[in-house]
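WARN retry 2 of 3 for item q-0093 after timeout on previous attempt; input resubmitted unchanged.
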Amino acid sequence: MQRLKDLILTQKPLALERKIKLRWLVGASTIPLFGIVAAFGIAPGTKVEPVQLQTVIESVKLPDLSGQEQNMVFWREDKIQRGDTVGTLLSRLKVVDPEAVNFLRNPNNAHSLYQLTPGREVQAKTDQDGQLLYLHYLNGKGDELVVERTADGLQSREQSAYLETRIQMKSASIDSSLFAATDGVGLPDSVATQIADMFSSDIDFHKDLRRGDHFTVIYEMLYSNGEPVKIGRILAAEFVNQGKSHRAVYFETPGGNGGYYTPEGKSLRKAFLRCPLPFLRVTSGFTKARFHPFLQKWRAHKGVDFGAPMGTPVRATADGRVEFRGVERGYGNVIILKHQGRFSTAYGHLSRFAKGLHKGEKISQGEVIGYVGMTGWATGPHLHYEFRVNDKPVDPMKVALPGAKPLDPRYRSAFRLAAKPLDDRMNLMRSVDLANLD
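OK item q-0093 returned
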């Protein structure tokens, strides 16, 4: 035993000496050499001999590509730009094919291409001479155009694309206007319009907005092959106006009737919409005395004028029937709808009426009945809208609108189950700043 201890004690200094030498070698090897740093170790007794380098040149035979060049195809993708035509778009896609240009210019072959939406993508496949072999386009409505070259020439088909639904969330504060706030977080105008429609019975978006008001919206976005196509339905929203919270959740009954309800199950749908146009500016309000820009004299203004571009669709504010469709003095082209009970509405200065609209026709709330114009006594394009009670005009922006029926008690439990996860999402959005969350 003593001999074994002595042997161990005599080996320790030798082992320590080897460790020190090895650490010195590794440390020295970390000194940069021509900008390169390396760490390595060499076992004791290793013989290091110079390495002999030899240059070898071999002849490599390349494959014959002459036959393949005749069958080369090219895939290209480009985004539609503002002002594009079919011709300019094909030119950027390197399509040199008069037959294809004429084919795509025919609306019967490619109707979707006459709705070129800036920012949408188009894919094209051509041969080495620029002849079109395949083209794919998905417009903003979810319609898919496919053009293929077959043995019989170019063929096209238009179909509804398979769309994947994803839930999106956005939140923003009001600094100047609702549209400016939605633009700031990348929301399209259609979402702003839906928000205004949902809360229009509780908030006057023309007068009640204040800086610092904020909203949260949960909505559907429809995708095709990972590309956003169009906005779906708003599932839930909250608008805090002057410190007061207004919430709405979408719910559909088993019978297929859907609508927006407060968390308590009260329907937000009114018998009348507050505004017959997408949320736009009021150019002249209801008043007993206004200097008429056309007649150049003071007189009562018995409706509200909404400024809008020529051709903007005009919606019926409530279910009803067409009582009058035609021309009436200062109103120009005008539609008068008769609604249930003692209510009626008038829509004046229209550029034209909806196709097929006739007296006595049944109209649903939100249905397009005409288009903004400047017929009659008008100095610019706008809609003159009147809300009448017993044929007497009242201010449509101030009148108390009749409400709709509350949620049927049979569906209360199902509504609470559907509303809770959406309500939780809105609470989450309120607690953190997620203005740009996708």
